[in-house]
Amino acid sequence: MRVTRTQGLHLILVGFALALVARSGWVQLRQRERWQAEARDQQTVERAMPAVRGRILDAAGIVLVDSRELVRLDVAPTEIRDRAALAAALRRIGVPAPFVQRATDLERKWVELPGQHLATDVADLLAMRGVHPRRVIERVPPATAGLRNLLGVVDREGRAVGGVEAALDGALRGRDGRTVLVRAGRNGALTSPEERVEPPVPGRTVVLTLHQGLQDIAERALADAIAALGARGGDVVVLDPRDGAIRALASRRARPDATGATALTEPYEPGSTLKPFVAAALLDRGLARIEESIPTYNGRFTLNGRTIADVHEAPSLTFAEVMQYSSNIGIVQFAQRLSPREQYGVLRDAGFGMVTGVPYPSESPGRLRPVPEWSLQSPASLAMGYEIAVTPLQLALAYGAIANGGELLEPQLVREIRDAEDRVTFRASRRVVRRLMSEATARTMRGLLRDVVEGGTATAADLAVYSLGGKSGTARRTRDDGRGYEAGAYTASFVGLFPAEDPQLVILVKLDDPQGAYGGVTAAPVTKAVLAAAIAARDGALDPSGLRGPPPAPRAAGESGAGQVVAAAGVMDDTAGPRGNAATRGAVAPASASESAPVGRAEPPVRPPVTFDLARPSRPEGVVDSLRAVPDVTGLPTRAAVRALHAAGFRVVLVGVGAGPSTSPAAGTLLPGGTLVRLPSVR
Amino acid sequence: MRGRTFLLLGLLAFVVVAAGVIWRRSVGVAQARTLRELRETRGSLSATEAALEGAIRDASSRARLARTAEERLGMRIPPESLVIRLPRPTPVVGR
Lengths: 683, 95
Hints:
The complex is a heterodimer of chains A (683) and B (95). Chain A is an alpha+beta fold and 683 residues long.
């Protein structure tokens, strides 16, 4: 068959058409996804939507750290229509003059302006042509330096740097989302309802156990003490011994490079504040009795060629007095009843030499050398709180065991974690690490620690109304290079249990090289200041029901009564003023009848309930408060006197040493309720 | 009807449908833009709210108030002997 020229042309055209169809089919069917993806890349643009970092709250729900969206401004000068208006608006929001000039310079194509602004503050600028906002999320740091040290910060790229922010970054960070925009002319983009959006998942909310009021109080007291005593720094830890919750944690250093929570990261030699654990171990094992006497050689004793000295120069002291007057000679001799392995076990069981597990990135384990590394002097040194390094948190937790009946608890810093829907995904619970001592031993130790405050080395911490137990410590400071001790430099510390009978708080105060050196006269008053402010604050830091009730709990059978005994022996006049004060009090003021009743049997006095009618004014015009007589408190201990005056409806202020009538106005004077009565603290 | 009429109607239908699609997409894009602007406004207002709340917290915090009260008003934290804790009224049941 012969094919004409026309037919050939048709065949070519048909073949070309078939090839086009085939290619079209190939592209549309076989390569569909590839070309669709390519088209999508050309037509759309994907933008990340940063997740908002989770908030950090205190135990009462007060926001400590939050995130907020701000805008940074970029300017394309060539797009601007009204340069004068732009310059005025930029000046109004505080943009530096050189940048204002650059932003209106037509020879520049793009100018990035410094600073971040709330969108509402720059709304007029955002409406201007040529102003391009960039949305950024700013992490607002905690208000106080102490909280910043503990919680850490987030850098400009959104990375957590240190502290709780870093430790809990996984929970706080959230997950970024993304959105797809349709490309438009002039590098613009349109939101298309057909394009998918993956919304960001915000970070979780972390609720801490901290109490912001207590935190503020602790930071303020620490700062004031450091300034007043010229200390190099200090730490305050406030802990709830009932569940191990950290209620406040303040750290401050003169060194500018110390920005972390040094209460968790910097171990120190605790000195005499370690003695109660050796004492508790001896009592727990039946190796010592509190009324047992031991020679203390008038304050100088040589053991294995080393001379150990006491500030309190007494020929002998009972076990209770050894604690009360912090006798090195006494505790060293008692500690010899423990084998080195037992002594090591006691300190290890108290949590020293290992991290507590608090969520903080660089917590220090402290240092407790194993027995094979000990020297001949080590048992004596450890009994006095040397050759061991502990962090303030470790020590506070160990004291928590004395406070709560003998159980060493895991510390709690995070109370709960909530997701974006406010569902609780984690809740902390009380976790016991181990039993450190029996309940009876813990109760006895609380009695001994109360004696330390009421008539021992830490009377500067004594409160007028409530009872406080505690132990002071003064340890020589090691040199920065770790070689030996620094001449004339000390670490002063005090650990308090409040209230002494049923502690709600353990308060540890440590001061680095303060003027005055002794923990009982430098750190103990800081504890008192913290407690006074916490009692006055009434913002939930303390459980009021645990503070009401009977006068100070009387001593149980077997508990210490060292104050009176030593006062009679005449050995209480060798320290600073407060102790002399206590001696006078112990010798002169007889124990009231109620104080001789055993613990647990004393019933709180039943008082009629007070009813307030809030609808009525508290002091109607023309109505005068009913008069009442000032009670006679002559001969009563100060605390009992204050309580008697409170019970009668008067306010009380202590006014140092007094003579003559026990109060001013005198007993029997008729006064309206609420009148201020002056009571000499030493009578 | 003749072929040209069919063709005309077909073209007209195409134009109507195309115009409808374009109108619908335009409305959608406009609404999406409005939605985005509203989202941004909400974000801005939330940020402003957070900033104001932070400023209120800071101004009413103990750290700031206590110092101000001491410096300007001469107030002092009372010792605990001046603080009287009143017992809570016992709730009366069955009266």
